């Protein structure tokens, strides 16, 4: 197996813990994101992008500030939802939102906002950096998440979530891509090979409190991101 070493997280994960944006838990940014922003508690700004909308959000003392309520309301967030953030730069993030069933949510917005109102006082370089996202493959046909609980059967969880994408009467294969490594798993009669799937899941070295996101394409390429319990992308080194 070839070696892969990735040191800088690009993905971040946040649980929504209540139906209001102003609880302490909902205002806190993911712990790992604090390290990337390197604001050290000072005021800074980030941009969150979802489809055609952009939300400038102030970060103060490792908490969401001005702009967070608008983002929360516009995206109909509620208790049990999850937010996936993919960094374009250290302060610009593409967003995927998942509902209580761990399935991605597509929102239709009443208007598009290219730039924030003047009172936000954004730095000029940030206010004009709304370029298209580079992280998401727009050929995805489905996105979902899986919670890591060692008492649950992770093999069954993968089989159940992915089975709708397979053809029952045709032998196929699926490729799981994680960071720079790939695993190819045979599919027979619409079911992934259990032994190969067990080997793949073992490579993920999962712990309770971690989370998996899967972005699925019609070509049966599944991009996998594993998040640690602090909401940051889990870094791997394979040899």
Automatic annotation (TrEMBL):
InterPro entries xrefs: B3_DNA-bd, DNA-bd_pseudobarrel_sf
Gene Ontology CC terms: nucleus
Keyword match DNA-binding: yes
Gene3D superfamilies linked: DNA-binding pseudobarrel domain
GO molecular function, one term: DNA binding
Compartment(s) of residence: Nucleus
Record has Iron as a keyword: no
Domain TF-B3: 12-101
Keywords: DNA-binding, Nucleus, Transcription, Transcription regulation
UniProt-recorded name of the protein: TF-B3 domain-containing protein
Organism: Rhododendron simsii (Sims's rhododendron)
Upper taxonomic lineage: Eukaryota, Viridiplantae, Streptophyta, Embryophyta, Tracheophyta
